[in-house]
Amino acid sequence: MQQTTVPKPTRRREAKSCTECRRRKQKCNPRKEGGPCGNCLRRYPPVACVGRAEPSKKPNATPAQDPVPSPHCEEYSHGSLSSSTSESHVPRPQPVSSPSDVSRNPSHLSSVSPAIAGVIDHDVSGYFPSTYTDVGNSIDLVLSSNSTPPKSPDEGSYGSPRNFGGILTSINTLYSLPIKQTSRNAELLHFFHGYVVPNLVSIDGKNVPPLFLREMLPWMIQSPLMPNIAIMMASATQSSEQQLMVKKSSETLSIQNHVFKIINQFLKQDFNQVGGEALRAVIHLAILEFFWGSTEMLWPHVKGLNQMIKLRGGYTQMKDPVLEQVFILTDYELACCFESDLTLQDLNPNRDMEPPIPACYSEGLKSPFLSSPTTFAQSRETLSLSLAAAEILDDIRFLTLSITSQDSQSNTSKIQSTASWMHKHLERIPTPSTPNPSESELFLIIIHTTALTYTKCISTLLPFTNAYTSSSLHALLSQIWLIPLARWKEIPGIFLWVLLVACPSAGNVDELQGRWLKKKMAVTGMTIGMSDFGLAIAGLRAFWKVQRWIRREREIGAIDPTILRE
């Protein structure tokens, strides 16, 4: 009779690997400082690094006793450091507080630099009404800053994810990109694609246009230059919306210095081979300076772009229709904002030609700058405008076309007289004065105010730079912010007209408000361009021609000082 052998009892092995490494049959390499293991830190897309240790039960353990947790007995998800077990004596990374939490935590406030501490207590949204969501949303996305500024974008105290907040604090997704693999760079890149990019091509930062996703986003990901420019733009955005001067932000300046080095190194190659890539990269540097930087740094970038276009052989040799349209659109936006001549179209053979306007286009794209088969009064129900507001827009369209239309034979005195009559007529139109005006009443107030300014500048040949005083522009912006950006997005043609008239006076208000005004003007133009570049360029060109007409008539002395007198 064969004797049966009883298997020797064995102790259950403690599972030290995380679930993801066990699933992939990889050797887990937990880090001493805690957080996700080294393997999960490099995974893309991000995964949750979950380690479940099951220590053996001691014979004398009672059910009332809780087992001492293992150092790896924690769950990490999307960079958050949270434990599902009881307290352990093993040191663990402390969770990062949000900017709002930091401002309420005196102990943490003492650990950050005085410059950062000064802005943490100062809420950016205080500059804007509560209904203005653009800045409020961005504050939630602004990540906590490191107490010690980095020496360069590739080094510094950015090694530990404990110093930062955000979704990418505990993972590293940069192995396929030409960027230093640090948690801070991962945060900035995520912030760029999650917040900066949508707000560059969409008025409310939502529903990114398909043209951008199809033509521009793939290049941004594959470009050898754009990832570094992306983290620079993200850093500049965060610095700007924390009310830090971008030109004084040590992190942004450090990244900018690194970007300039790699671009200069890139340009040492054959320009015939790298010209297209260089043009796409440097236009983003110009946009960064226009939105968040200084005018002194903007124009050198524009000059460099002009030289590179010449080296490329002009617009006909660019062989990139989308990039060509972006250059033309940006050139008109800069010219309208600074009331200057065009700077990027010296070699554009179509510079003096009117861009084609489709016979029919969306009602929301209708603008006082452009002709249309239907009037605003006929489309007022579709646009949700009052009859008074629609009639004002129709009058403004008539005045604009009398200046910009090639078929118009109106002389200066006739145009001035027409503008003067409209201005006096607008002054007699009553506007709502209720404490809480409705949306329709707000549109009427904004359109009425903009039309008064527009007709005054044309009738008196006043430059738009001096159109608004500080108080009047602040009042206009306060009314604009009472209307959600999603509503403005439905009528970008009218919104662009309002912003273009106000944008040259942006230097007369607070810097934060001026930056918002310039940025929204450019983004609104780009939003229309993503639907129809010809329509967007035609609207910008019409306003630019009105500015040029005012300047030309002023230079020949056509000003009539009595034009607005009763």
Description:
With 566 residues, the protein is mostly helical. The protein folds into two domains: 99-338, no CATH class; 363-555. Helix content is 51%, strand content 1%. It has 23 helices and two strands. The chain has helices at residues 19-24, 38-41, 99-103, 106-109, 114-120, 133-141, 183-201, 210-215, 217-222, 226-241, 250-266, 271-292, 295-312, 321-338, 380-383, 387-404, 412-427, 439-460, 470-481, 485-490, 492-502, 511-531, 533-555, and strands at 75-77, 80-82. The protein has a two-stranded antiparallel sheet with strand order 1-2. Strand 1 (75-77) and strand 2 (80-82) form a beta hairpin. Helix 10 (226-241) packs antiparallel against helix 11 (250-266), helix 14 (321-338) packs parallel to helix 23 and helix 16 (387-404) crosses helix 23. The longest helix has 23 residues, at 533-555. It is elongated. Residues 53-171 have low confidence and may be disordered. This is Zn(2)-C6 fungal-type domain-containing protein. Residues 17-50 form the Zn(2)-C6 fungal-type domain. Residues 78-88 have a biased composition (Low complexity). Residues 95-110 have a biased composition (Polar residues).
Question: Which key features would you list for this structure?
Answer:
single chain, 566 residues, mainly alpha, 2 domains, two-stranded antiparallel sheet, 23 helices, 1% strand, elongated, membrane, Zn(2)-C6 fungal-type domain-containing protein, zinc ion binding, Zn2Cys6_DnaBD
Strand content: under 5%
Structural class per helix/strand content? mainly alpha
Helix fraction by DSSP (H/I, runs of at least 4):
40-55%
Helix and strand sequence: HHEEHHHHHHHHHHHHHHHHHHHHH
Number of helices, where a helix is a run of at least 4 consecutive DSSP H or I residues = 23
Number of strands: 2
> Could you report the average pLDDT, rounded to the nearest whole number?
77
Oligomer: single chain
Rounded to the nearest angstrom, the radius of gyration is: 29 Å
Estimate the global geometry from the Cα principal axes: elongated
Low-confidence stretches are 53-171
Tally of structural domains = 2
Main-sheet strand order equals: 1-2
How can the largest sheet be summarized? 2 strands, antiparallel
Question: What is the CA-CA span between the terminal residues?
Answer: 127 Å
